[in-house]
Amino acid sequence: MTIHHVPDFDGLRLLVGIGRHGSIGASARAQGLTQQSASERVRSMEATTGLTLVQRGARGSTLTAAGVVVAEWGARLLEVAEEIDTAILGLRGDRDRDLVVWASMTVAETLLPRWLVLLQQRQAGEGYRPTTVSLHATNSRQVLEAVREGTATLGFVEGGEPPPGLRSQAVGSDTLVLVAAPGSPLARRRTALAPEEVAALPLTNREPGSGTREVVERALAAHALTGATPVVEHTTATAVREAVIAGSAPAFLSPRLVGRDVEAGRLVVVPTRGLDLTRAFRAVWSGPAAPPAGPVRDLVGVARQA
Fold this sequence. Notes:
Blueprint: H1 9-21, H2 24-30, H3 35-49, E1 54-57, E2 60-63, H4 65-91, E3 99-104, H5 105-110, H6 112-125, E4 133-138, H7 140-149, E5 154-159, E6 167-175, E7 177-180, H8 195-199, E8 204-206, H9 211-221, E9 232-234, H10 237-245, E10 251-253, H11 255-264, E11 268-270, E12 278-285, H12 295-305
Parallel strand pairs: 3-4, 3-5, 8-9
Antiparallel strand pairs: 1-2, 5-12, 6-12, 7-10, 7-11
């Protein structure tokens, strides 16, 4: 069967972008095209399909009813094409099985080591050479930037909401706890701290851009509160934990990170109330709606099951 009326992939990407951004110019910029070449591509698509796809106006460009339908079909076609492209790359050699993974500090320190072991065990059991993973640990904001820029093949972040402009899938969750050194006045606290009391606490904190810090700030903002200036900021969750153990101000941390310290009496959990400190761990990537076939999908699957 000869296909005569389907635009090429570049044209479909442009059309989908017009629907998302509301103008030919914005969609063109997102794809590195000039306004003139984008307009010419729209005219070419309309000639190919025999349909008017874009309605131009003083306030921008909108898709016609036919354009909306073609863009929806085109988005599905692009997702399938991207998945096939990724699968083909995976067939071209073992070198294409390597992964560049960026992860938030909590995920990198407490979750990813086990996930990577499980991934290698699964691949070895299926007869594949285990994927070589290059891991970069940083805060959630920088992870998202790396995925958007293509520096990272796959990212893992923590926070409250799915990141805009990227594909994501929840792979777990936890609820932050406030911990203090055993000798601090807060360690003797028996009643739960109200949101106003938490906001007044100088904390040992993560740096701006951290998913842990974002969750606490969002929980306080839900009560129209802003936290006090941190006593100190650290770039890793482990550094925050060690500082609190040494006698620094209290901190919000994952129970995954401090569970053994609490059991051993090195840290004390300080009760709080009225704050939503639950956060999701998410795998993030760019491209098709489903994780690309191959090691990316394998690792996301392992993370969800683990």
